[in-house]
Every structure is written in C-alpha cells, then in structure tokens.
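Narrative summary of target 7.
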Amino acid sequence: MHNSGFSVLLDEEGKFFYIYYSNYAGPLSAQGIAVARLAYEDRFSPAGNVWKRYGGEWKEAGLGGLSQAVLPAAVSWASPNTDAFWGPSLHYNTYLNQYVMLMNRACCEPGWPPEGIYISFAGDLANPEGWSPPRQILANVGWYPMALGLGSGETDKRVSQRARLFVGSDSRWVLTFLK
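Modeled conformation, tokenized:
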C-alpha cells in the first residue's frame, strides 16, 4: 500500500505514539487518513511493535497489515475526481483540552487540486472514531497545514489558544481557538 503525509503524536498519558497517515491504495474503506500506534516503551524497538487500527481494534501489523481509514475517502484516489482528506497534522491543544487535526482535502477534479484546509477535534487519540466531522477553515490555498503555538514553550505538537498556521511554507494566518 502506498501511504505518506504522516504525523506522530504522543498521547497525554504518555502511553502510545499515534501515527496518523495518508493511505492512497487498497479498498475505498482503507483510503484516506488512517492510524497506527506504538507503545511508548517500544520506542527503541519499533519493528514488529506498530499496530494499525482495523475493525475497531489495534490488531493489524504496521507493515503489511490491513488498514481502515478513520476519515475515509468518498471517491477513490484511483479516480480522476477523487474526494479525500490527506496530510494530517496533529497537536494537543491545552486551551481546549483536546487533540486537533489539520488536514488537506483533494476534491472532485483531475490532478487532485487543493480544495481546502480542514480541522477536526477529538478528546482521546485511543478512540480514532471520536474525531469531529472535518470543517473547512481555508479554501484553495495549498497543501500541508501545520499549527505552531505562539506561547512560551509551545511547539507544533503543543498549542494553546493561539497558533500560527503554516500551509506549506506560507504563514499568513493566526488561528484563535474558541471554546
């Protein structure tokens, strides 16, 4: 299977690294944004210890195992008019006390043009089905969104109420999160 565009985030409990990635191949249910995880204690020996989420369980091998998209494509990547989310970027938002995923959407035309940047929220990385429906925050601006916290000690993985939004290397926007 062909996949790329990944983001890795350690959960707030420090138990697992969650690996959200774009999957472009296989059945439609596997295409889109999928997830795997690695136990924190296995971080120095990841081979054979990464498990993909499939059928509601962490049971498929990271290499060669089946995938099931958390945010599945509506139209296959093999079609010229694909409709799919891809390129996830995750952070924990300390202001919202939630995880935030920024992502791209390619939609509905040949050549996979960047239709927009979307955002989704979840309270628990261990429950990938708990992500809110993605909402568009920018249209037709490019690829690879990422938030970078503006407060002292904040990073691309830990953000509070305000963050600089990068899309590729462009950074014209500031996100302000509201409760």
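The chain has a mean pLDDT of 93.
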